[in-house]
Design goal:
Blueprint lengths: L1 H18 L10 E4 L6 E5 L5 E8 L7 E5 L2 E2 L10 E6 L10 E6 L2 E12 L1 E6 L3 E5 L4 E10 L3 E6 L2 E2 L7 E5 L3 E6 L8 E9 L2 E12 L7 H21 L1 H7 L1
């Protein structure tokens, strides 16, 4: 009877397996993007379109593919999802630099390949061109720069290298900001300041016109208020003292 029970149990297991087939395993299935089976970086420049092609390897069935730009899913047409899928980035621009595109297996998203765009471009600069500042006030000239690879900056004043005085000048630089601050500006600080940015792909310049204006005299507000109060009181006392004459006239 034990053998009969064991046989019946095995039969029930096989029946369940037939009714509820296990999903096919993704073990051994691989993806490639532009012939790369591992994550990689793709260097390019702004302008021309880039095509990314994702292909399924080592699968015995039709596989659906998904594309992501960063964390957002890319919409694909029906004929561009199974076993092979292509996306086109056109035109490539500076904002695509550092963006990750990922192809994933729909039924097992752990099977994936990512490509990071390395968009290289020469410097382009921006910043307020004309600044008016009162004498003895502080001022900051900010040169905003975008480039890839990162650029180096130099400041000039009236076409000569800017002479830095540690007690009055301060430089600040990040990957996208080049800044020079001047404390207690003087009339001699007026002039044209040039931000020059140099990178392996080219150079860029931007002029900043600093105009130092005369120091405005401090208006003696308290003294004026005091004077107005004194005059008002004097007039009031004068009116009170002469009220009898004023009433006789009326």
């Amino acid at each position: 009877s034990g053998e009969v029970s064991r046989a019946a149990f095995v039969g029930r297991v096989w029946l369940r397996m037939l009714k509820c087939p296990c999903p096919p395993s993704s073990a051994g299935v691989e993806l490639s993007v532009n012939n790369h089976t591992a994550d990689f970086t793709l260097s390019t420049q702004p302008g021309p379109a880039i095509s990314l092609s994702c292909l399924v390897h080592n699968s015995s069935q039709a596989e659906e593919l998904l594309w992501y730009r960063g964390d957002g899913q890319v919409g694909l047409k029906d004929g561009n999802k199974v076993n092979i899928s292509n996306i086109c980035i056109s035109p490539v621009n500076e904002s695509d630099n550092g963006v990750t595109f990922t192809c994933k297996l729909a039924r097992d998203k752990s099977v994936q390949v990512s490509v990071i765009l390395d968009v290289q471009f020469p410097p382009w600069l921006s910043g307020e061109e004309t600044l008016h500042v009162e004498e003895e006030k502080d001022v900051t000239l900010t040169c905003n720069s975008k480039s890839n690879p990162q650029a180096q900056s130099t400041w000039f004043k009236d076409n000569h290298s800017l002479t830095l005085q540690p007690s009055r000048h301060e430089l600040y630089q990040t990957s996208e900001v080049f800044r020079v601050s001047i404390r207690k500006v003087q009339k001699s600080d007026s002039g044209t300041y040039t931000c020059m940015v140099e990178s392996p792909l080219g150079n860029g310049t931007r002029d900043f016109h600093l105009i130092v204006e005369d120091k405005k005299p401090v208006f003696p507000t308290e003294a004026v208020i005091a004077a107005v109060v004194v005059v008002s009181i004097t007039i009031l006392f004068g009116i009170v003292a002469r009220k009898d004459k004023i009433f006789k006239v009326w």
